[in-house]
Design goal:
With 324 residues, the protein is mainly beta. Helix content is 4%, strand content 47%.
Length: 324
């Protein structure tokens, strides 16, 4: 009903949601094999998009130009969680099922597997990031974090302070590494030289810090699952700022900062991905393709944000109309 549109727009602005998302962007949805349950995605420099097919123990490769999808099996018992593009151009995967770090060469589909040390136990591997020196850092929700050197094959696994919870992980432009602890309700800084982790307390108790991402200035953005908030921590000033997500019963799962320092967060409460503009402090909603999309991670490249809809066996792209 056209007569309701001005009132609806006013209501959205009162709630802190910006309108006009469709005018500034477009979306496209791609189907992946039924039962794949795409958990994480990683767009690559050659235009392809990798995803972890957690339900089928494989690395998925989507060609957005054609819509074609193929999957590379990772090994017996595989249940991959995170995937990122390494400096070598390969896909690097945290595989909770194999309790291992896995590498896939996209040119040959060769799969290399490095199991965690036996004494480390089952890590429930989560996500990984490369630092400036090419070392891979990773988290495990069962209370560990660690590093892997692709050149030497050396692996170190450490017990996390406060035990279970390490989840999302990020590296800042100055070379520091931070992770978020969902069950531990904090973030932590890893010293790359000593591998020691130092706890940093968010201002909201029992917030459920789930994922974490650095912007271009080294500020850390955190999705707070338990309380439905987006928060920012500045290591330079040690100051926090918090923004509740709009709407009823928000649950902030994934967070990602794009090349323009716009912040993206997936909200399970509204079944949408929200873009947050730090300059205006407004949220813009991008509804998911259907109910129960269960978006667990976000990643992008200039002009694009990629959204794995794990509950729907779909992958969606939000094209922002810019190229960085």
């Amino acid at each position: 009903m056209p007569s309701l549109r001005p009132a609806l727009a006013a209501l959205l602005l009162i709630m802190g949601i910006a309108t006009g998302a469709s005018a500034a962007s477009e979306t496209q949805t791609f189907e992946v094999p039924k039962g794949a349950r795409p958990h994480d995605v990683a767009p690559t420099l050659d235009g392809k998009v990798w995803y972890t097919a957690q339900g089928q123990g494989a690395l998925g490769i989507l060609d957005p130009a054609t819509g074609k999808v193929r999957q590379v099996p990772l090994g017996k018992g595989s249940a991959p969680h995170g995937v990122i593009a390494g400096p070598d151009g390969a896909a690097w995967i945290t595989d909770g099922g194999q309790n291992a770090i896995v590498r896939v060469d996209p040119r040959t589909d060769k799969v290399d597997v490095w199991p965690l040390p036996t004494e480390s136990g089952r890590a429930n591997l989560n996500t990984a990031v490369f630092d400036r020196s090419g070392i891979l850092w990773f988290t495990g929700q069962n209370g560990v974090y660690g590093r892997f050197d692709p050149k030497s094959g050396a692996m170190l696994v450490r017990k996390a302070p406060r035990g279970t919870g390490p989840y999302g992980i990020t590296a800042t432009p100055d070379g520091a590494v931070y992770y978020a602890s969902l069950a531990g309700n904090h973030i932590a800084r890893i010293d790359p030289a000593t591998a020691e982790a130092t706890v940093i307390e968010p201002p909201t108790k029992e917030q459920g810090a789930r994922r974490i991402w650095s912007d271009s200035k080294g500020n850390l953005w955190v999705s707070e699952w338990n309380v439905g908030q987006l928060s920012r921590y500045s290591p330079a000033t040690r100051e926090w700022k918090v923004w509740p997500l709009p709407g009823r019963n928000p649950s902030a799962y994934a967070v990602y900062v794009d090349d323009r320092d716009m912040v993206w967060v997936s909200d399970w409460g509204s079944n949408a991905v929200l873009r947050f503009d730090p300059a205006t402090e407004r949220f813009t909603p991008f509804p998911n393709s259907a109910n129960n999309a269960d978006v667990r991670q976000l990643l992008g490249r200039p002009g694009e944000v990629w959204v794995p809809e794990s509950g729907l066996d779909r992958i969606r792209v939000i094209r922002t109309g810019t190229t960085g």
